[in-house]
Amino acid sequence: MQVIIAIVCLGLLMWAEPVGAQTTHSLTVSHHRNVELSNDDVDTILHDASKLLHKEPGHVDTLDDVACNVTLRRRGAVRTFASPSTPGKITSRAERDAVHRESADIKVVSMINFCKDLGPVAGCTWPPEAHSMIIVRPGPTLPRVFQHMVWAHEFGHRTGLRHRSDPEALMTICSLSPQAANQVKVSKDECNCFVSGAGSCPGKQEPTNLRCGLPVTLRNIVRSPFIDEIPYALISRGSPRELPALVSMLQDASEQNSWANIATVLGLVGDGDTGRTLKDFIESDPAGVDASSAFRAKSAAVVALGYLLNRIDDASARAVLLDTAYRYSWEQAGLWIGQSMETRRARIEGLEESKMVALALSGHPEAGRMLQRLAPNERGGQQLIDDLMQTYLKVRERGLAAYYGAE
Fold first, then answer.
1. Do 242 and 218 form a contact (C-beta atoms < 8 A)?
2. What is the pLDDT of residues 153-187, one digit of tens each?
């Protein structure tokens, strides 16, 4: 009888404390044809993500930070997207959903400019019912020190988990910190979701008005990837005294991996000189810079002019976005625009899409009229135009802070 009772008690303990379970989730991975991603790349990222969850030897569990014995591993070979029409750059809800429809658990693309809202991010597991993770390729957009953190964070969303305010949490709403790369908190309840896997924690709603209490500088923010949404509330707390430093970083080739985020932040908090700075950057031909970094940064700078025009009646922003006499030609750009005709055409179309996004995010009356005049067959079709008009109306009526959930 004592043996039976002991077995029953052990079973109850195992059921009540799943954080102690050894669980492995095998995940399929695919990528856009223009993204380079090997089996070894994926194995390394998943190994590091698993190590993050397991914690370092000697870790002492607390209710808010447990060693979560979950291992993520690759299932089958990494493959390219099944459909040749599935986009590698996401700018609209329709493009996001097309990537979600690929059969793999994890889809890797070159750029995400739309997830829940418009804005450059590193990952997207929205909407929750998709149970599908979209992540930006390893490289300048997502440096190695952050890769495993983003993959683990997005897997958390895949289970149904939402953000929380703790700056040291894996599911944080705050910017990631490379100093905390192996010290990211996973609570006991969160670990239970990681153990149970995809869709196991439905109904966990995102808390409203999440706030990050982390003391932060704009320089630190721009050097970390925006995980799956722009940290608008955090950026808006930055000091105007930091703007000259950000402008200097935008002119420093050693900061090129941060240029896209710098441009975004300048658009959101910049002053009357910012428009000229962004316009000059867009028209520049930087030497010794990775072409992908330059393209992504210039795309972000175009969008940033939309943010700026929403806040300031800036002449440079109007010249690029609203003035039809503006004739800067992407066709005359330097090597960063691409050497093959296919690459050049794709990047020019991408920059034109960024301009359309900027018009929507500006909320400017003339921008709305320009969007309404677009023909359905222009870059993305009617669905893209409809998505942009919805964004335009939201920004026009509620403002950028409300659009990004910061108020």
1. yes
2. 999 999 999 988 888 899 988 777 666 655 689 99
